[in-house]
Amino acid sequence: MTANGWLQIAFYLSVILLVTKPIGIFMTRVFNREKTFLDPVLRPVERIVYRLTGVDEKHEMRWTEYAIAMLLFSGVSMALLYFIERTQKWLPLNPQNFSNLEPGLAFGTAASFTTNTNWQAYSGESTMSYLTQMAGLAYHNFVSAAVGIVLAIVVIRGIARKETDKLGNFWVDTTRCLLWILLPVCVLGSLMLVSQGVVQNLKPYTTVQLLEPQTVQVTGADGKTTTQTVTQQVIAQGPVASQEAIKEFGTNGGGFFNANSAHPFENPTPLSNFFEMVLIFAIPSGLTYTLGRMTGAQRHGWAVWAAMAFLFLAGVTTAYWAEARGNPLLLGTNQQTSALHSGGNMEGKEVRFGIANSALFAVITTDASCGAVNGMHDSFTPLGGMVPLINIMLGEVVFGGVGAGLYGIVVFVILAVFIAGLMVGRTPEYLGKKIESYDVKMAMLAILILTFTILGLSAVALVKPFGASSISNPGPHGLSQILYAYTSSAGNNGSAFAGLNVNTMWYNTSTGLAQLLGRFFMIIPVLAIAGSLAKKKVVPESAGTFPVTGGLFTTLLVSTILIVGALTFFPALSLGPILEHLLMAAGKSF
Amino acid sequence: MDPVGQVRRQSLTDTKILSRAIVDSFRKLSPRTMARTPVMFVVEVGAVLTTVQLVGNALHHAGQISFGLQITLWLWFTVLFANFAEAMAEGRGKAQADTLRKARAETEARRLHPDGSKEVVASSALRAGDVVLVIAGEFIPGDGEVIEGVASVDESAITGESAPVIRESGGDRSAVTGGTRVLSDEIKIRITSNPGETFLDRMIHLVEGATRQKTPNEIALNILLAGLTIIFLLAVVTLQPFAIYSGAPQSIFVLVSLLVCLIPTTIGGLLSAIGIAGMDRLIQRNVIAMSGRAVEASGDVDVLLLDKTGTITLGNRQATALHPCLNVTDVELAGAAQLASLADETPEGRSIVVLVKEKYGLRARELAPYNPTFIPFSAQTRMSGVDMDDHQIRKGAPESIAKYVAEKGHEVPAEIMEIVREISNGGGTPLLVAKDSRVLGAIALTDIVKGGMRERFEHLRAMGIRTMMITGDNPLTAAAISRQAGVDDFLAEARPEDKMALIKSEQAKGKLVAMTGDGTNDAPALAQADVGVAMHTGTQAAKEAGNMIDLDSNPTKLIEIVEIGKQLLITRGALTTFSVANDVAKYFAIIPAMFAGAFPQLGVLNVMRLRTPESAILSAVIFNALIIIALIPLALRGVRYRPLGAVALLRRNLLLYGVGGVIAPFIGIKLIDVLVTYLGIV
Asked: Whole-number mean pLDDT of chain B?
């Protein structure tokens, strides 16, 4: 670990802290339908959208209607993507003449992009046409992010409003989210990325002559090894920048290229890397301020932020420490940081990012349910790779996915308030709303879904040949690979412990299912909580009211997340990354 | 401090209760009973599974007999300990119910027919509407209302209070309870309840916990516990495939042990005991709660409505000073005040006579020679007094006296008006005394605030509870007394309907309101309040409207009720937090033990350095069972409530039960491991 590395991490968190308030205020204004500086341009557009679609913008929905609208919208969008994937061969903008996707992969990918997971069992540059990338995948990057954000807003409204069953209009919220928040930032963000060298074109791939021909060993189908000389390379092209900004800003994470943000066309410079990291946390962090502002409890918003920041720093510290330590099995190799090289475990990392920024990116992308990567998590040291895994297992509440992080942490807040709240001698209250059996039931349901999906599917995959055969490394590392795949899917993260062959019927179907369960079966109880909270009376604050601000609450929240969220996975983790780490220390690798 | 009714304490180690509880804990093993507490039901199922496995192993001469037997035994103990906790909590109530049943024993009653004839029938033959005659020495055969006569009644069977109480027809002291005994005189009673529905019957049900329903908060907590149980069930069930993949499959003993240690058995096992004990603590303080819901609500109370008279101040106002006019002597005023009050039987009137006697040495005089005509107090004139041969003496409210003398062409001297204002401002009630048409001076009646009230209100404030004094006094007087007593707010010149309106407006603001009452005109407000405590001495209507009855009829007991409600919630929260925090240590005991065989490297996680895998797992299971027993006293007594304010209270309890809950099992499991290893049983 170096001072320079720490300085960059500290600088990153400071920038996030700085943007939290302005973004939070802006989102509050957008969703409260107050005046913003963009109104003169966007308001007419918004009106046209409603006129064309027949949306009554004054109509307010109950949580059930909101949920149905959201499910319908997601379902239709998912079908649309599936259709494009299955017919791209005959559609325009396919200069490389990619064929149609087979049903399993098409379903898995459609589920993955609809749920904001962006799990990719394919290589973008060799599978998807430009049309699929733009109208299919990038479209979902925008709308799935918007769905997540508006759901968080509904939950906030549920806390803030009283004695009503009206929680807003799904179509209006989503439209405003797209027009006011996602599109403007992504237009500017794309330009910024283009300035750094991210490509944006619709050209066929470029074939170039190598300056230095490479000789490679190729094993043929008959098992014989032959030597081949490679003189040409195909350089993939495409509308990358326009997809890149929303990939981070909407915490989607689905790369245009297989290498994701490690690819120089997606993430060419340290500055673009920093910019992409800021985009990932911008909305999740801002939403904590929106929570405070809309509920009139700004200090509560900051207390939630502080809990997130604490868990974030704990993750970064562990991952950075583990990666900077290097690999103890590489005896005799100089892994010290020096002027000439970064030291540490550089396997699977980009030299232009180094240890600190790779560890930082890995933590950010898994804290948020982004899943974009600038290094290979599979190549991290066991403990370094466990950090992303735990981050997702916690339910991605450390800032979290856009919207999903906030409503996820609200579930934990409710549990924390309920478990410890009794200890002040009152029926637990959250910002004046009594937490009753219905709310507890829904909160437990949301947490159960995640545990059930991750542990259940991993268990099946590990002992059945159709699952275990995809493992590339045996032993505890293989267990981590499978555990990571389902954790990432159920958590709607989308990053992968590369190495597991997931483009099989079983994995495409089961991960797709995990994504749908992890997204929608989490959302429905959360919306039910919002509906239930909104109906309640507000109990005025008194000296006897449970405090949801300050260090004490933050500590309580962090402990609840760790004990309720993480302990469940402790047995699985101890047979995966922890065991691998201990075996590595004993000289055994996988 | 106010005397608090005699507290019926029974020792936790009462052998009769203890032996009954032990029998009951086995009886409660029935799956139908167990299913009501999902957490313990899972433990029981686990125990059955290991028992079956154990028998199987024994038959097939497979290994793990000693280890399996011990694990199985401790799992059964875990279930039994939880049942024992519940049985102990119920024990005290059952013992008390037995005593009450004796009071309910069949008696004979003298039923009166409309034609005046009498008939002796069994008390069980009485129906609502019957009229009975009860004479001295007899038991009252059923709940009812005195319709004729006055009698002193021994109600100790119900209240535990040995001093007899007066019951009379009309007014607010007319309700009598079946099973109590008339000591003197005779009364006619109209029976108001049918056999089986009497107050005594209800009380027996309540103290026995037979009709106990889960309270809203308990239901929510049960859902949380069930949810956690399912999560850990998932974690343990899926662990086996993980273990098989890793080449280290686990035995059923180990898996069930892990599951039982992880699910929140501590709170799951003690939850119902806490609830029953909370009700029981109220009963020990002579408060009968009609539902657990009301007890729980009392912990949430935001506003306490307290009647001034009898609650904040001692009974009635008393005369404390005389203020004569400039040209009037003390003795002249005292004499007139005495004459005007001799026939005044109100407490205020009597206090004037007492004051005059003590301060001015004037004894009561014989008035007969003067042909006195006493003028009683009337609501219209708001004066009382006496007309004698040559003088007319009046005393009354300043406005009334002013009007009285004005009619005769006089007015109240300015200096007296000044004194009147001063008395009012100081929280007193001024009375003026007039002789013929001349005002002689003023009498100050003052409220005496009970000792210790200020401190109690401060405690309540720290709990976040606002106290409000209800009084019929004018706002000035009310303000002065509320200042003196330290209440937060007051409602002056209150009529019964104002009380109702106040409760509704506080409730509309989302607040929970508690109040006490005894009169029939309190009944609507008692019913409206979230916690309505009716005085046992009160009318039937009041007792039916409230959701609690204080057998001691002590209005300040509301404060204790609130504390018990809070204690109940805190105890639940503390043990839940403790239970969940315990899991950390248990993981560190069991996980390394499970896989130490296949992967010795995982021994690093064995931070407690437990001797062998078997001793580690057994120690965790034993700790998990014993902690239930260890916490029974806490569950029954309740966590002490300290009026500290939420933040300080939370910090304290989090440290104690959260941090303590993380640390305690590390120490406990280690100690048990040392002992188990020393004994060489694994």
From this structure: 85
